[in-house]
Design goal:
The structure holds three protein chains of three kinds.
Chain A (H helix, E strand, L loop, with lengths): L7 E4 L3 H12 L4 E4 L15 E2 L10 H17 L4 E2 L3 E5 L7 H11 L5 E3 L1 H7 L9 E5 L2 E3 L1 H14 L3 E3 L2 E9 L2 E9 L5 E5 L2 E4 L5 H7 L6 E11 L7 E4 L8 E5 L2 E5 L3 E2 L12 H14 L8 E13 L9 E2 L2 E5 H5 L4 E6 L5 H16 L20 H8 L5 H10 L16 E3 L4 E2 H10 L5 H8 L11 H13 L2 H19 L5 H17 L3
Parallel strand pairs in A: 1-2, 1-13, 2-9, 5-15, 13-22
Antiparallel strand pairs in A: 3-8, 4-8, 5-7, 6-7, 10-11, 11-12, 14-17, 14-18, 14-19, 15-16, 16-17, 19-20, 21-22, 23-24
Helix pairs in contact in A: 1-5, 1-9, 10-11, 12-14, 14-15
Chain B lengths: L1 E7 L3 H12 L4 E5 L20 H9 L4 E9 L5 E8 L13 E7 L7 H10 L3 E7 L2 H7 L7 H22 L5 E5 L9 H8 L3 E5 L6 H16 L3 E4 L3 E7 L2 E7 L7 E8 L10 E2 L4 E2 L7 E2 L17 H4 L1 E2 L6 E4 L2 E8 L14 H22 L12
Parallel strand pairs in B: 1-2, 1-12, 2-9, 5-6, 5-7, 7-8, 12-18
Antiparallel strand pairs in B: 3-4, 10-11, 11-12, 13-14, 15-16, 17-18
Chain C lengths: L20 H5 L12 H14 L16 H5 L6 H12 L6 H7 L1 H8 L3 H9 L1 H11 L15 H7 L1 H5 L3 E6 L1 H7 L1 H13 L2 E5 L8 H5 L3 H20 L3 E4 L2 H15 L10 E3 H10 L12 E5 L3 H6 L2 H10 L3 E5 L18 H18 L3 E3 L3 H11 L3 E2 L1 H8 L2
Parallel strand pairs in C: 1-2, 1-3, 3-4, 5-6, 5-7, 7-8
Helix pairs in contact in C: 2-4, 6-11, 9-12, 11-12, 12-21, 16-18, 19-20
Classes of the chains: A alpha+beta, B alpha/beta, C alpha/beta.
């Protein structure tokens, strides 16, 4: 059988693509996932990492709210190692209308979200960093989710179920016979190598880039790129998600995620040309800090680690070509019925939160096309790593008396941390000291998770995501990658690229300790190490 | 407490100034907020293209031997860099083709020395390379704490067991004419690098590691020791927080630890470094000098502080405290008569002094000359003799 | 304040540049591979502990709280404070009996003092040491500090009237060591103060400063002591008295650890609590004089105790000793002697403790002084036991050199 032939080709290695591949693969479909860059490089990895309870949408978009709370409960079961069950607060500040609170709580309950009005005093006790001036608070089952980990786990499970992955591979065109898509032309962006892949069904899960992919196929998906900017603070200021209890607006969500917290976001329509290189403007930085400090005044004086921005793939409803009626709901387009083009499905819209449902919808559509009748099991099958409920339980089973680094590995890898158990003592050496990532953990990622560069490695392990932003770990990790891939030359360039990528997020907030760190890192790499 | 000169900052610039003044018979103190950037020293005195004799003598008296050759040195990531004045354990070569064959030695479990990068870099220059990892029982204890297998910890062990490394190398050595070792030798016992060179029948090249820099720490310790031996006082871990200024002169400074006990002096030297060392402090609105509130030369528009390309020169690094022609600090447009600014806090405001180590040493020596000249001309008395009140 | 005009964090942990300088100066790291090191235990660990206290590592107990990481840190991170605060907050292991005994210096002192000859005889016996070693894990190599038969407090009370006759007065926080083990140091202080025309009085019932309780996981008791001591200090300060001390560790604990680790506000008394060396230096600077013996000739090597280094007041001892005409002064490299209060007494730490001090001991041997000067009593035990050189507090040296 032709190794380039599959049952389905999925374009896009974001969470939708990875989730769809997992679902397909679990239903016994032979899959290939093609991603132009790395996993989770688009909107998947460029949001808050908020595990929505759905409360944010309850008033204006009850359908999304219901989807969110259902998926929220499912992810807690199947993706425990990617999720932090923090709960969230919707706070009312003196300048807000306290009357909105009841509307909000009613809407939440309508949508099946357990929203509970609590005393402001209790809110201050539960979350000491919250703005003490609050006059009202509602507790909801928000949480946080690590999108990189979630995406990697989906990809890994797809691989375990026989799926194949081609990262850093771009779709350059479709192979078309009359009104039927037969496959795709691709080009590897690292090696320049070209290849054709064939499948009876192609799923376009390219996020905002899905617009362009659809164009390549000669169909139109009316997408609207909306940029959202966010700031990462250098440590966890809050341990519960903090939202404003009012109509959704700019910079009104503060999410604790792993060792940091994230404030966001803004929403600005941008041209398609800018999607590949979105920069955070000084005005956005000011807005984020100003509004963020209203949620938690500590943000006024907490070190900021990075600024970043993502592009939401918003889709205009098909019956509204003007784009005014933009939905954040899930859009699954069968281009056969919509445009008369056979063999192409577009899955888009939606949210990180509802990726699994999107994947289920897309996979159902694929199955219908392939004539397969198998049930979706992604809602009840834990992702690899999530077989235990907590990282305490994971660490307990592996190590007698786990060190902080081992506990951290258990928190990041879940049950997969057992893969580093038997390694020798040298594998315990820390590569990234800020996030406590060991040699063993990095080698495990290189081994199974399709790592080609330091930036890829970062997404899978948190290497370089800590306070020093790669100051010490970059060259250590590069040496491991050079060993694994046998190319020192490439890794030397990779170091420079990684530091550049880190700087891109640093300089928009380049003052105080962040600037000190940058000066130090530049000194070390330029003058001490000789890069 | 009274001194002739109080120096704020205990890095290369501050120590150079302190040593010179102490040697000239002054009674000085150095205030040092923690350890200095010498801990991240590459071993080469950048931007010093010719050997300044005054400096070489100062260093030699402290037990630090420098050598001067124009050429290139091997950098830790396998690249070559032009160099001239260096510590004696840094080898300078006329060209990057430093030999025929190289044996590169690393320690098991040590991740801060980049042997594969060095090998690739040397191969590019036409050398054949072998990388070998050695393990000594003395390092096994260190390996139990895998996150702390750092240059300094290894160097402490090496001060005791360097001979075993020589034995290992002699066993591993075939026909290589170059042996590359990490810079983890001679932390306390400064004779070790030289003795390793004698013991190995090939040219030994010490290549750098991730910080802390062992040659840098050794340099710092020797300079400090010499300074104390000459009678200088070091206020370690203390910080100048405020100054009392009358009529364009600094009368005294307040430190965090000595609080109400002020330090008075005829002259003050500000050698507090760049951003890392907090000589300059930035926030979204300004860049300022925190001790005296001196005038700083910088661009007001924050968006112009950075070059989006990380590897390029960054505009913010060029900013510095304003001085007059004689390194007097300037505050509110007026020079302060008895406050001199030296080292990297100057940024690029004094291009004639160069950058990095060159700037530190040259500006420190220039300020010292000026202070000694003032003291002689004005017939100023030595402000205080520590033995009498 | 404008947004982001400055940033702040607990113990300045966010100012850590991850430069690793602290790891080069941590004495424990050099000898104990079980210790994660100040960077990991302090600012690095703090970020994880903020995420979840589960990430607390019990190996933080190996930190001696010597603060050398803080002195070395170029960024002003309170590394050791972060570590000790984490232990106080997250380590729920109750202290061992042995640690409780070692930590209760004043309680033990008041019990032992009346029976000093017996206690000294018994703790000096090989058999007792073996028993202590086996039962309580107090290392048999350690020489227990001798208890004095008469307390310093008793002595000074007997001299209350003549001290009150001096026109100028200071109060003296003598600490457990002077009171129970070595009243002579207190007497030396009185001699020097009197020579400056200053009378010395006791505080109204001081208690142990509590440092040993802090490091032995008894922060509740330490807090009670702290509150008590701030109260008695305040009484003296309210009378317009300065309070002097002769122990760098007691001073440091009361000035710095009370607020930073025990949350006890000492702002009303902090500025009036001084090492006696600082007060003496300031008096001399203002014109007071001391007359020294012409026949006093000693080579003195000064060792800066860790907490003195942190406090930054070693310069007063240094300047005073240099001032004595017959003194040949040598500044020893600032390094930990390894005892760290009760740390070195514990059997499990003995070896590490001696290894930490080794460099200092050999430097002392090569300097070969007549006296090692040092402002800390536990350093004194350690250096005397390990080198055989006599160790004296600078105050005792001043007293000895006075005419």
């Amino acid at each position: 059988m032709n190794p380039n032939e599959f049952d389905v080709i999925i374009i896009g290695g974001g969470i939708t693509g990875a989730g769809t591949q997992r679902d397909c693969a679990m239903r016994g479909i032979r899959t290939l996932l093609i991603e132009r860059s790395d996993i989770a490089t688009g909107a998947t990895g460029r949001n808050h990492g908020l595990l929505h309870s759905g409360a944010r949408y309850a008033v204006n978009d009850p359908e999304s709210a219901r989807e969110c709370i259902e998926e929220n409960m499912i992810l807690r079961q199947i993706a425990s190692h990617c999720i932090d069950e923090t709960d969230g607060l919707f706070i009312t500040l003196p300048e807000d209308d306290l009357g909105y609170q009841q509307t909000f709580v009613d809407a939440c309950r309508q949508a099946g979200i357990n929203a509970e009005i609590i005393d402001p005093d209790l809110a201050r006790r539960l979350e000491p960093s919250v703005n003490p001036d609050l006059i009202g608070a509602v507790r909801v089952p928000d949480g946080s989710v690590d999108p990189f980990r979630l995406c990697a786990a989906n990809m890994l499970d797809a691989k375990i179920h026989g799926g194949q992955v081609r990262l850093h591979t771009e779709v350059t065109g479709f192979i078309r016979e009359g009104d039927t898509i037969r496959g795709v032309h691709t080009r590897n962006r690292l090696t320049g190598e070209q290849a054709d892949y064939y499948a009876p069904v192609v799923v376009n899960a390219g996020g905002i880039w899905g617009h362009h992919i659809a164009e390549l196929a000669g169909v139109n998906v009316g997408m609207y790129p909306a940029k959202g900017a966010l700031l990462i603070f250098a440590h966890r200021v809050n341990n519960m998600v903090i939202n404003r209890c009012r109509k959704p607006s700019n910079a009104d969500i503060l999410v604790p995620g792993d060792t940091v917290c994230v404030i966001g976001t803004t929403s600005t329509r941008i041209p398609f040309e800018e999607c590949d290189n979105v920069a955070v403007t000084p005005d956005e930085v000011t807005l984020l800090i100003t509004e963020g400090a209203k949620l938690s005044p500590a943000l006024e004086s907490t070190r900021i680690l990075r600024a970043y921005a993502g592009v939401r793939p918003l889709v205009s409803a098909d019956d509204d070509p003007t784009g005014r009626n933009i939905s954040r709901g899930i859009v699954c387009l069968d281009h056969e019925s919509r445009d008369g083009l056979k063999g192409l499905i577009t899955i888009t819209g939606g949210k990180l939160m509802t990726y699994r449902l999107m994947a289920e919808i897309a996979t159902d559509a694929v199955c219908r096309k392939l004539g397969i009748d198998k049930r979706c099991e992604t809602a009840v099958t834990p992702l690899p790593g999530s077989e235990e409920k907590s990282y305490e339980a994971v660490a307990q089973k592996i190590w007698e008396s786990p060190s902080t680094a081992q506990k951290a590995a258990a928190a990041r890898m879940g049950t997969r941390a057992s893969r580093i158990r038997t390694s020798d003592r040298h594998d315990e050496a820390l590569i990234c000291e800020c996030e406590e990532v060991s040699v063993g953990e990095i080698n495990a990622a290189i081994d199974r998770l399709e790592v080609t560069s330091l930036t890829d490695l970062r997404r899978r392990t948190r290497v370089g995501m800590g306070t020093c932003q790669g100051g010490f770990c970059t060259c250590r990790a590069a040496a491991l990658l050079a060993k694994a891939h046998g190319s020192v030359e490439k890794e030397r360039a990779d170091i420079a690229a990684f530091l550049q990528e880190r700087w891109k997020g640093n300089f928009p907030i380049g003052w105080g300790d962040t600037l000190r760190e940058a000066e130090y890192t530049q000194w070390v790499y330029k003058h001490v190490l000789g890069l | 407490m009274k001194f002739d000169t109080v120096i704020i900052g205990g890095g290369l610039a501050g120590l150079t100034a302190g040593l010179s003044l102490q040697k000239a018979g002054q009674n000085t103190a150095i205030i040092s907020t923690g350890q200095s950037a010498l801990h991240f020293f590459s071993g080469t005195f950048e931007s010093i293209e010719e050997p300044p004799q005054q400096m070489q003598r100062l260093f030699e008296e402290a037990g630090i031997r420098l050598h001067y050759e124009r050429g290139v040195r091997l950098m830790p990531l396998g690249t070559f860099r032009e160099s001239a004045l260096s510590l004696e354990d840094i080898d300078i070569f006329p060209t990057p083709k430093i030999g025929r064959k190289a044996l590169i030695i690393n320690f098991m479990g040590y991740h801060d020395f980049f042997s594969s990068f060095l090998a690739e870099g040397l191969q590019k220059q036409g050398l054949e390379c072998r990388v070998r990892f050695i393990n000594l029982p003395e390092l096994e204890k260190l390996q139990l704490s895998p996150s702390e297998m750092r240059s300094v910890q290894i160097a402490r062990a090496m001060d005791r067991v360097w001979e075993k490394v020589v034995q290992e190398i002699r066993m591993l050595l075939k026909d290589e004419d170059v042996v590359v070792l990490p810079q983890v030798f001679g932390l306390q016992d400064t004779s070790v690098p030289g003795r390793i060179r004698q013991g190995v029948p090939a040219r030994v090249v010490f290549a750098g590691t991730l910080p802390p820099s062992v040659p840098g720490i050794r340099t710092q310790m020797l300079l400090k020791k010499r300074y104390q031996l000459l009678g200088g006082s070091i206020l370690m871990g203390d910080e100048a927080v405020k100054a009392h200024i009358y009529e364009n002169r600094i009368h005294s400074i307040v430190t965090r630890n000595l609080d109400s006990h002020y330090l008075e002096a005829s002259h003050f030297i500000l050698a507090t470094g760049g951003y890392f060392s907090k000589g300059l402090v930035s926030n979204p609105f300004q860049i300022y000098e925190p001790v005296f509130g001196l005038d700083v030369e910088y661009a007001e528009d924050r968006n112009t502080w950075y070059n989006p390309a990380f590897a390029e020169d960054q505009p913010y690094m060029g900013y510095g405290v304003k001085t007059d022609g004689k390194l007097h600090a300037v505050k509110d447009g007026q020079p302060i008569d008895n406050l001199f600014v030296v080292g990297s806090i100057l940024g690029k405001t004094q291009p004639q002094f160069g950058s990095a180590a060159g700037l530190a040493v040259r500006s420190a020596l220039a300020a010292v000359d000026e202070i000694l000249r003032c003291t002689q001309n004005d017939g100023e008395e030595s402000a205080s003799n520590p033995l009498s009140f | 304040m404008k947004l982001q005009e400055y940033t702040s964090s607990k113990g300045n942990f966010e100012e850590c540049m991850k430069c690793t300088v602290c790891t080069a100066y941590c004495p424990v790291l050099q000898v104990n591979p079980l210790y994660p090191g100040p960077k990991q235990a302090g600012p690095d660990g703090e970020r994880l502990r903020l995420k979840d206290p589960y990430f607390f590592n019990k190996a933080l107990k190996y930190c001696m709280n010597c603060k050398r990481c803080e002195v070395a840190c170029p960024s002003g991170v309170h590394v050791a404070d972060l570590i000790q605060a984490a232990r106080i907050k997250y380590d729920t292991t109750p202290p061992k009996l042995r640690d409780q005994i070692l930590a209760s210096t004043d309680f033990m002192g008041s019990l032992a003092r009346p029976f000093a000859p017996i206690v000294n005889g018994v703790t000096g016996l090989g058999i007792t040491k073996t028993v202590l070693d086996a039962t309580l894990k107090i290392d048999r190599h350690r020489t227990f500090p001798k208890y004095s038969g008469r307390s310093f407090e008793g002595w000074l009370k007997r001299h209350r009237k003549e001290q009150a006759a001096f026109p100028e007065q200071v109060a003296y926080f003598h600490g457990c060591y002077v009171n129970y083990n070595y009243p002579q140091l207190g007497k030396d202080l009185v001699k020097v103060m009197n020579a400056l025309g200053i009378g010395v009085q006791l505080l109204d019932k001081e208690k142990c400063c509590g440092i040993a309780m802090i490091t032995n996981g008894m922060s509740q008791s330490a807090r009670k002591h702290a509150e008590h001591n701030v109260g008695v200090l305040k009484k003296a300060v309210d009378q317009g008295l300065k309070v002097v001390t002769t122990s760098s560790t007691c001073t440091f604990t009361m000035r710095d650890e009370y607020p930073s680790l025990l949350d006890v506000d000492n702002s009303a008394v902090k500025d009036s609590l001084l090492m006696a060396t600082r007060l003496i230096y300031e008096k001399l600077e203002k014109g007071a004089t001391l007359k020294f013996r012409a026949d006093y000739h000693k080579k003195i090597a000064y060792h800066t105790p860790c907490h003195m280094e942190k406090m930054g007041w070693g310069i007063f001892s240094e300047k005073l000793l240099k001032m004595i005409p017959g003194v040949e002064f040598v500044m020893l490299d600032s390094a930990c002697c390894g005892i760290a209060g009760t740390y070195g007494f514990k059997k499990e730490n003995y070896e590490a403790s001696q290894a930490i001090g080794a460099a200092l001991f050999s430097q002392i041997e090569s300097v070969n002084p007549d006296i090692v000067a040092c402002d800390c009593e536990t350093c004194k035990w350690q250096i005397e036991m390990s080198t055989g050189y006599p160790v004296q507090n600078p105050i005792s040296i001043l007293a000895d050199a006075l005419e």
